[in-house]
Write a structure and sequence with these properties.
The protein has helices at residues 3-14, 164-173; strands at residues 17-26, 32-39, 42-49, 64-69, 77-83, 97-100, 106-109, 115-118, 178-180, 189-190. With 197 residues, the chain is mainly beta. A hairpin with an 8-residue loop joins strand 9 and strand 10.
Length: 197
């Protein structure tokens, strides 16, 4: 083999893996595409970003990426990993994982402190669920100045069906009939309430 062939083959091998920095991301199509700055002299457009199934993100400008170039061809690359040095969550314990955003929201799967959701002062919403079940061994506690519910509330739901609204209505509308009145220091006897739930 000629030296020229060996040199070209060596350059191709060296070009198989590279790194770059994200300038912008186009996230509207079936495959996410990025414009990258590889070095002071090289900018590459329309490089696909590959994510694991079930997870997607949009790396902000300035993110570092690792690329693979098929056959060492710089026009045929794909991004296989990304990281942003400023926004990366640091000091995780061994075995911990976190999903995070650029503005500070996090879902943190801790090693020993359970699951922590940090909403960063923003709403948390669960949509399109038929039933939401929370199985807690001790209790469910909500620390809030106001708790609202648009529908009925039923406590001890496995043994009774009365709602809080029905209980309130029964309480507000019930009265007692006086059965026996005595004079002096005697007590007054009344019947049970006329309206119960």
């Amino acid at each position: 083999m000629s030296k020229g062939f060996m040199d070209r083959a060596a350059r191709r091998i060296l070009n198989i893996i590279g790194r770059a920095r994200v300038n912008l991301v186009k996230d509207s199509g079936p495959v996410q595409m990025a414009q990258l700055t590889v070095n002071d002299l090289e900018t590459i457009d329309n490089i696909p970003i590959v994510h694991d199934f079930g997870f997607s993100s949009n790396p902000p400008a300035g993110s570092d990426v690792a690329m693979v170039f098929v056959g060492g061809d710089r026009s045929n690359g794909v991004i296989v990993a990304s990281n942003h040095q400023k926004y990366r969550v640091r000091n995780l314990a061994p075995g911990e994982s976190v999903i995070y955003t650029q503005d500070g929201k996090q879902i943190h799967l801790t090693a020993s402190g359970g699951i922590k959701v940090a909403a960063n002062g923003q709403p948390v919403e669960v949509d399109n669920a038929t039933i939401v079940t929370i199985n807690a061994a001790s209790k469910v506690r909500m620390v809030t100045p106001r708790f609202e519910c648009t529908g009925d509330i039923v406590d001890n739901c496995d043994t009774q069906t009365s709602t809080v609204a029905q209980l309130r209505e029964a309480h507000d509308s019930h009265d007692h009939q006086v059965v026996e009145v005595q004079t002096g220091g005697s007590t007054i006897t009344t019947s049970g309430p006329n309206n119960t739930v």
